[in-house]
Amino acid sequence: MIKRSSEAADHVWALLGGDPALMAAVEYAGPETALPARLPVRETARATVAVCALAAAELLAARRGGPPPRVRIDDGAVATAFASERHVRRDGLAPASFAPLSRFWRTADGWVRTHANYPHHRARLLAALGVPDPGPDADAAPLVDRVAAELAGREAARVEELVYAAGGLAVAVRTPHEWAVHPQGAAVARRPLLALERIADGPVRALGAPSGALPAEGLRVLDLTRVLAGPVATRTLALLGADVLRIDPPSLPESQELHDDTGAGKRSTVLDLARPADRAAFEELLATADVVVTGYRPGALDRHGLSPQALAERRPGLVIGQLSAWGSYGPWGDRRGFDSLVQAACGIAATEPGPDGGPGALPAQALDHGTGYLLAAALLRAVTEQRATGGTHLARFALAQTAAWLARDVPHDDGEPEAGADGHDPAPWLAEGEGPLGRLRYARSPVEFTGSPRDWARRPGRWGADAPVWL
């Protein structure tokens, strides 16, 4: 069944500076039972993928001439992709879910949400609470009970500040009103969903016609992002033909299970920018890069000369993507964050039903995935503009801004909230094949236009194992 155009997609396409007439090339189809929630998650997901696919179609048309190809958005494909990390299987084995200490906890005055999937975050959380760490191989149940007892007598806001001061990750669960009057919530509300701007002059990058329907063919992308929105964006660019090289520091190893999902189409290397040899290798890569995407907390990479302004001076004509959890402004402008924490702080967890009357969550990590597709769309649109007029372009996104858009500005298709069990069967949108590390099952990309690639050119390899060179 073909459905009408998405009002949310129209709005985002306008924010990206796209020609509104091109929205006529988008059609929507597929089941409408997926991603049920009180908030309009399905409409948000559909819109983010639509503008991404349209931006890809627009760039392809600009490079080879003629009108953009038709774009088709299938709700089933979108819903499957928005839970891609849940569908991955390597040799039939499912990835681990959230770690035992990543969850909601009752406090003396409400709830707090913690994130401790990575060892360093777990260690900092336990240190902040004064709980001895029995080690990763110990039985988790006694540790969970000990942490629960510690938090039960504390106020949520105090836990939030205590854990943050220790370098850990915890936020108090707030209602939408409590977030609206919070200084960071108020700062987010004053800003639009996204920012895409030309920040400096720069040469036009010569991009000829691609060899096929690969609008990003010939682009070199440095991927300095981590869980999950940034890797979704760069995974999409890789699908569309870009040479994407992910770079991580050796001090922050990535989960191979997560890389099995988000590493599709890319290569991955490890560089310590504080080491002269690694820094030289990075500078050589940057010298011929077309796109740089960063996803660390604001300011974290500035000491390496990777702020947007420094990049514009060192490599005029770059397209730069910058992603954060809370934005680069307000009292939380330098804080780390993840999708689950943003949902908790921004009122989403209080809005969505949870077990036993407690806070809940969206049916997918929709802030991460949605922001990832929006970021990819912005980068593709910037490449289209850069190809025509030159300049250095910057796209800025924050998960909290996507949360505000979801909760405030995205209309339901039928005007009524939807909730209930998700009857979506993902099977038609899953693929399986041999990879470097075994047989891999994964979700296909929902980005589809006439002639578009249906799969990535390479499956994920071992995280960090590739050479720091362009193909």
- In helices, the fraction of residues equals 25-40%
Placed side by side, the strands forming the largest sheet appear as 7-13-12-11-8-9-10
Largest sheet: 7 strands, mixed
What's the average pLDDT?
93
Low-confidence stretches: 414-421
Helix-strand makeup class: alpha/beta
**Rg (CA only):** 21 Å
For the secondary structure, the number of strands is 15
- What is the overall number of helices? 17
Principal-axis shape: globular
Task: Kindly estimate the percentage of residues that lie in beta strands according to DSSP.
Answer: 5-15%
What's the end-to-end separation, in Å? 42 Å
Question: What keywords describe this structure?
Answer:
single chain, alpha/beta, 17 helices, 37% helix, globular
Structure overview:
It is built from 17 helices and 15 strands. With 471 residues, it is of the alpha/beta class. It has a 7-stranded mixed beta sheet, sandwiched between helices. It has a 3-stranded antiparallel beta sheet with strand order 3-15-14. The protein has a 3-stranded antiparallel beta sheet with strand order 4-5-6, with helices on both faces. Strand 14 and strand 15 (438-443) form a beta hairpin. Helix 10 crosses helix 16 (366-389). The longest helix is centred in the N-terminal third of the chain and has 24 residues, at 41-64. The two termini are 42 Å apart. Residues 414-421 have low confidence and may be disordered.
